[in-house]
Amino acid sequence: xxxxxxxxxxxxxxxxxPDPYSYFMLVAFEGSGLxxxxxxxxxxxxxxxxxxxxxxDAGLKLAIFISVAGLRQSEIxxxxxxxxxxxYMDDIDIRAWRMFSCYEKRVVVTTSPRLMVERFVRDHLGxxxxxxxELQVNRFGFATGLIMEDMCFLRNRVKGYIKDEKPAVGSSRxxxxxxxxxxxxxxxxxxxxxxxxxxxxxxxxxxxxVIFHDGRLVKRPTASVALLIFLWLPLGIILAxxxxxICITLAWRSVHPCIMYRxxxxxxxxxxxxxxxxxxxxxxxxxxCTHRTLLDAVxxxxxxxxxxxxxxxxxxxxxxxxxxxxxxxxxxxxxxxAEIIQSKLKEGDLVVCPEGTTCREPFLLRFSALFAELTDxxxxxxxxxKVGFFHATTARxxxxxxxxxxxxxxxxxxxxxxLNKLPTDETCSSGKxxxxxxxxxxxxxxxxxxxxxxxxxxxxxxxxxxGNDGTFSNKGK
Length: 477
Prior knowledge:
Layout: E1 5-9, H1 10-14, H2 21-31, H3 34-42, H4 44-52, H5 56-68, H6 73-82, H7 84-90, H8 94-100, E2 105-113, H9 114-123, E3 129-133, E4 135-137, E5 143-147, H10 154-162, E6 169-172, E7 187-190, H11 223-250, H12 257-263, E8 267-271, E9 286-289, H13 296-304, E10 310-312, H14 317-322, E11 327-329, H15 334-345, E12 350-352, E13 363-364, H16 370-374, E14 378-386, H17 402-407, E15 413-418, H18 434-449, E16 452-453, H19 458-466
Parallel strand pairs: 1-2, 1-6, 2-3, 6-7, 8-15, 9-12, 9-14, 10-11, 13-16
Antiparallel strand pairs: 4-5, 14-15
Helix pairs in contact: 2-3, 2-5, 2-6, 4-5, 6-9, 7-9
Subcellular location: Membrane
InterPro entries: HAD_RAM2/GPAT1-8, Plipid/glycerol_acylTrfase
Membrane topology: Multi-pass membrane protein
């Protein structure tokens, strides 16, 4: 017996927003930069005017042309893989998804170029086929900005894929140009969405979460948000420079860190018992932190009122030069790294982030067990931050600008929560294995922040963002 199939439109059905304009803005910004972003933003009135004239096809083609013309195909695929899934997921209509998930054979129809949406709908929504416009690419691998066929041919492509078997359910918005594929479906749905009574929906049935994503923008750049970001950028750059100068000047003076941070327009939240400075007779304390941005160790030092060195696997040369605290580079050779950490602990306190890389979503990556082998003086610290416009970390862009983008946000918020020092019976001194200690610390920090622990690692992050694996795999505990 053949599997029943469902065909749903992405824009306006699986996604709440029927207008893909903001996703083209993301491709323009993340794939090319501010000039293309600004050009597409200025073209928005023309695109809207074409829509009002019932020329949606022309408006869509104009948006596609501006956003991708001259970009490498690989760069468009990279944005579709590393940046767009997070924003698509935030826009999911959960009622449509639950209907969609009831069927084994899931087909998505989209007005956007297939390269933009394919990774998301396959890996996170479980689609077996994505039918969208195909970009023309020249022999050098650059997109021309043109599409190979008009949108009216998409119905024939749906019919060609399904062949003689009619889809059990089709769903679309009636006003969109590709909605005529509904005529080949047994059961048709148009918004407002009506739940199929034959579909037994489980409330816990959710799409695969987006754990890793990249890009600088926090908010989806609709026309109004894009204009706000564009107007804020000059002021944000000046504000970032002023904030950095003030922080460097006042960080370790008599000014209370929360007051200092309020002076520069941010908010610093400190919770839990602040550990005292190390004594001369004992080795230093190892602060084991969650890793949200490259500034974690800096803010921890500011809160403690003393410069605590940190170790890092990768840091740009500019960030290393500008860092107000000492940063030691690890080699990823276990014996060498262990010696570096132990020698530094003999001199005093040290900060380490066992995840090895940052994660923006409410998940903690697997903790490396190396720190647990080297000391039983462990203080877990839950670090978290909230930003408005720009992310302070990136895997694809210029890492040297990470700290600048953080301070460009209108009101950046950092939260530092100290947990109690780990009891001796919960360290390796009591006979526990390093992995048990590391997993325990990870669980404690995840519970404090309300995050989920996972077994994902730094390698998993970069493999997923680089597209070296075939599908999304959630390795959550």
